[in-house]
Amino acid sequence: MVGKMGRVTGTITPGGLGEVMVPVRGGSEAFHAYATDTDETIARGTRIVVVEYYPPRTVVVTKM
Question: What is the CATH number of the domain that holds 11?
Answer without folding.
Answer: 2.40.50.140
